[in-house]
Amino acid sequence: MKDYHKLLSDEISLDPPDWEEMRTLGHKMIDDMTDHLQNIRQEPSWRKIPGETKESLKMNLPQEPQAITDIYEEFRQRILPYPSGNIHPRFWAWVQGTGTPFGMLAEMLAAGMNPNTALGEHSAMYVERQVLSWCKEMMNYPQSSSGILVSGGSMANITALMVARNHQTGKDVRKEGVRAATGNMTLYCSAETHSCVEKAVEVMGIGSNSLRKIEVDNHYRIRTDELERAIKLDIGAGNTPFCLIGNAGTVNTGAIDPLEELLSISRKYRLWFHIDGAFGALAKMVPEYSDELGPTEEADSVAFDLHKWMYMPFEVGCVLIKDSAAHREAFASEPNYLMNHERGLAAGPDPMGNYGLELSRGFKALKVWMSLKEHGIRKYAAAIRQNIAQAFYLGELIEREARLELLTPVSMNVVCFRYKRNDVSNEGLNKLNKEIVMSLQEDGIASPSSTILDGKYAIRVANTNHRSRKEDFDELVRETVRMGDKLLT
Amino acid sequence: MKDYHKLLSDEISLDPPDWEEMRTLGHKMIDDMTDHLQNIRQEPSWRKIPGETKESLKMNLPQEPQAITDIYEEFRQRILPYPSGNIHPRFWAWVQGTGTPFGMLAEMLAAGMNPNTALGEHSAMYVERQVLSWCKEMMNYPQSSSGILVSGGSMANITALMVARNHQTGKDVRKEGVRAATGNMTLYCSAETHSCVEKAVEVMGIGSNSLRKIEVDNHYRIRTDELERAIKLDIGAGNTPFCLIGNAGTVNTGAIDPLEELLSISRKYRLWFHIDGAFGALAKMVPEYSDELGPTEEADSVAFDLHKWMYMPFEVGCVLIKDSAAHREAFASEPNYLMNHERGLAAGPDPMGNYGLELSRGFKALKVWMSLKEHGIRKYAAAIRQNIAQAFYLGELIEREARLELLTPVSMNVVCFRYKRNDVSNEGLNKLNKEIVMSLQEDGIASPSSTILDGKYAIRVANTNHRSRKEDFDELVRETVRMGDKLLT
Hints:
CATH class of the largest domain in chain A: Alpha Beta
CATH topology of the largest domain in chain A: Aspartate Aminotransferase, domain 2
Largest interface: A-B, 192 and 193 residues
Radius of gyration of chain A: 25 Å
Oligomer: homodimer
């Protein structure tokens, strides 16, 4: 770079040429988004994206600046009207939370401050510590345990399983890799476990063949007799069983594995006991579930999402780990360019990079901090309890309706059912119910998702929606029946 | 859950009881944050957090709701005044971008819409595709390549190396694990490579012993003779060399490895050629660097961050992979509950979960989409070029100043130097320069960070700051000299 002086004669920045225009636009956005959220119930639950709108999102890389008001107008016309819909009262697809207006504002503040919450002495680091401390309280984990905020359940599970992998063999897996273990390193979970656990096992270099997916009972809970048999087989084969994963709420049906039994099996065979509680772990705060989910407290680690059943904006998940030393040993390093100093910016708490995979970390903690203060934990517990009550209510509606079949008893917040007529084959019902789901969505009525249970296509309602009301489930049932009837004629 | 009917008699939601109060507060936040950003130059570059403020961030889990205006006031008093400072014109620590006001507003819109940009037919999925297409244009990657937005460099590198690991052995590593490979799976990079690469190798179960850290020349670039020697040694030992990582801008000094040579070595030994270009890859858009960084286009994959040298708010990084089939094969799965449908919400583009580790993915793409339109790519290229020019300017200032020593020639945007006096030992200088760095930060003058080069403590300026001006570097030099003089008397 030779003539650099010339380049510095007229310096630029990316700050707005007109701050007042930016401010005015910010105000307009606040008004629009507030209106949007306040009136969301009047919107369809989903809206098809027109072809020309999709086409308009296939432009070449912009070369020159465009006016910010024009860009925002494009957003309003092409992006805002076609959301996935998880902020809508009748969205119950997959497992996605709803978000809140205050959470939205918190994200703006976080992006304005724009810290990298990975290391250093600055407020974001302390807000995250505060929030992690609150998460421990929520889960009744000791304050001596460690944790980290991550993007969601996948990362939370990977993080915990990494710690288990590195800690349990007694070998230096970080340096030597999984080859250091005797035989294959084997893990155990139910066949209903979320696919992210399998992905984690693949990521870790162990290979999914070493993940033993134990069959489930007729309530979709792991069969502990089969589990013990599998562990013994692996020991006999010279493998290294190291980890057991229990489900606090399976993705398909919301089933809770028999955690107390899993706990004692894990202790008997010295396995790391991890709980995938992506949404279900939080139901521990609901009186009716505190016993069944109680063993979560005794586990070695637990993963759960705050953007699911705590209704915060994407992304924010959490993993807690009892043995903070094991947690740190799995990830810590201090290269020269990250040296901790006694004072100044490079002082500060133990860097978060020592507890996870990332070194670029936004200020996720702020929305958690602000939201928990906004509502207080009791209200969250009440909202979660309400979602469960609504699921039971929906289950009752379905059982009362002759043309609907509940495919498994409701156990928490997930309801799997289908439209049924005895003169239609199972294959026919599968096609029909898929058509019902697509039509409910296309007509903007409601957004359930689907799964397959025992070869049956299930309309699946996973309720982690603080905007849903009883009447929304009435409508879902009414419309499902109407749609099924219509499609059959 | 027995008495659920009772719980539904008086349903709650987490929406605000008073929408107008929320709206008004949103307006106030816009005003405050706009003022904050507009006047950031008048703030100190860093400010010590008072003990009582830290203490106030050690409260018990909130049980009951607090007024949103009170919560915001707490934010204003306890959090906002103590940022890490990377939005300040004289912040050059580690490698962190600056953010922009429009980027901040984009994050609010994204959190308001609150989609999970993982799967489904909704606008966010198309915005991400658009943005990825633009990233390919920026890097001159073919549109047939694939990519994904991630949290940052660490995740981008892990993602690419996972693909390399799974693709290169010809074995089914996803199922069988790294044990399936013949001998150890070995990777190659320079000793100056970022620690996240080592972490990625640990995560993948390969073990860091299999990462060959090749020594560097006196410009901190990998020695290709040593590299070839190491590869041959591994082949001779029956190992499986599978990947070569080149640096487009090392973290310590901004050095660019001899990429052309690395490319041909990777072809000769059939290694996956990955570029860690966390910040440096973007300098390809600067005329003076397009040749040296040109081979990035020929690599198998490249990782780079948009929150670094594209100045966008945290978090957003990107990885691009030439062989989209290999990319997909490394991650894809379709469990029952994620079935793609022909129509409705569950239709839509190939789920992003098939290209990475995460299934919870916020709407990172929106800030990229809005920012690239706001400025156009030419302005980004100009800002990057300006940062490099400023680094050369700083290098010149240092060379002109007898009491300062440039520790390695400036090659891009990183400058490593120290205060020096011949009558002080190296150990003494190390202590002194560390004290200078801490004092510059404590006094709110500037925030460089540090590293160690050849046993010498270096004051390290990594310039990815669109707010910095020539005068800021004048001040840094002046104050460093003043501080050094003062500390020595």
